[in-house]
Amino acid sequence: MTVLHIGEINDVEDGHALVVPPEQTGHDQAIAVFRQGEEFFAVDDVCTHLGASLGKEGRRSCADGVVTCWLHKGTFDVRTGEAVNYPARGRLGVHEVELRGGEIWLSVR
Ligand code: FES
Description:
The protein is mainly beta. It has one domain (about 1-109): 3-layer Sandwich (Rieske Iron-sulfur Protein). Helices cover about 5% and strands about 45% of the residues. It has one helix at about 20-25; strands at about 1-10, 15-20, 30-35, 40-45, 60-65, 65-70, 75, 85, 95-100, 105-109. The strands form two sheets. The protein has a six-stranded antiparallel beta sheet with strand order 1-10-9-4-3-2. A four-stranded antiparallel beta sheet has the order 5-6-7-8, with no helix packed on it. The longest helix has 4 residues, at about 20-25. The chain is globular and about 35 Å long. It binds FE2/S2 (inorganic) cluster. FE2/S2 (inorganic) cluster binds next to loops.
């Protein structure tokens, strides 16, 4: 398992994401780390419908534990990665996030 420091808590607005590219993690795709209040959750950053980035920069796409894809409005549970509403389907890969002081650490599964 790869564990890396990816940023600072105060750099991510509530409902927004920090997208970590595969070159940084060694994972086969980008990972979106969403802030939900004081908690952070990490899922694969590729919508299971047509592959849009769920953590697209500048978009507030996570609310009440649900991530909404900007492209066709499919939704996913940010904690489990499960698809909630069509046209999202299947499940996103999930990863662990640990907060250490003001730092965000990602464990890639
Ligand atoms: S690409 Fe995400 S819902 Fe269509």
